[in-house]
Design brief:
The protein is built from seven helices and six strands, in the order βααβαβαααβαββ. It is of the alpha/beta class. It has a six-stranded mixed sheet with strand order 3-2-4-1-5-6, with helices on both faces. The two termini are 29 Å apart.
Length: 211
């Protein structure tokens, strides 16, 4: 096993969409990003343009692809359906106010990992596909260097789950705010065969660090 192997993992959330702005559930529905305020991405673009990445991965949904196109990074992304947001099924496009009286919705809020969204995806299915992606992304045979930079353009739920997976946070809901068009930088350290978060900061770094 290599000594002092680490990965700088940039988890970036796509720019905002119409449904995001209206606080509607948006999972697999393939919505494009809004152009309003998109120049806010310029700070992120400036920070990332000087970096060299060993790999860039993106959800295959259009909102992630278009955000990456705006950032105009030097490397082409690997499109990954496994890092899509959760499929909310019949709840796609609906707001909290539309669902709050639904007993099924209340059960899901109490334990999203145990219960499924109607005609959508269970928490277990969501976690299994993200786990499969992470395992492949961090395959030690593929990571030939002792230090690697990887960027993942994805969705809020995926980022929250990865934070918990790497023990950067204690729970899915206690994660730091994952803002559209911004992200988090996790330094993952290989400790006895397990990847764990050693440090966590916000991206762009002009924003105050979390630790």
């Amino acid at each position: 096993m290599r000594v002092n192997c680490y990965v700088d993992l940039y988890l970036i959330r796509h720019w905002i969409t119409d449904w995001n702005r209206d606080k509607r559930y948006l999972g697999h529905t393939d919505q494009n990003i809004l152009l309003d305020g998109i120049n806010e991405l310029d700070v992120l673009k400036k920070e990332l343009e000087s970096l060299s990445f060993n790999a860039i991965y993106s959800s295959d949904l259009i909102r992630c692809q278009r955000t990456l196109e705006y950032l105009h990074l030097r490397h082409s992304p690997n499109l990954e359906p496994r890092i899509r947001e959760m499929n909310f099924g019949d709840w796609e496009g609906k707001k909290y106010e539309d669902l709050k009286e639904d007993p099924c919705y209340q059960k899901w809020l109490d334990n999203w990992e145990l219960h499924s969204t109607p005609s959508g995806e269970s928490g277990q299915m969501f976690q299994q596909r993200v786990d499969a992606f992470v395992s492949e992304m961090l395959n030690r045979d593929k990571l030939s260097l002792d230090k690697a930079n990887i960027l993942v353009m994805t969705h809020g739920g995926v980022i929250r789950y990865m934070l918990r997976k790497f023990k950067a946070t204690n729970s899915f809901w206690e994660s730091p705010a994952v803002i559209h068009g911004k992200g988090l930088l996790l330094r993952l350290v290989d400790r006895e065969g397990e990847w764990k978060c050693n440090s966590l900061s916000v991206v762009p770094s002009a924003v105050k660090d979390l630790q």
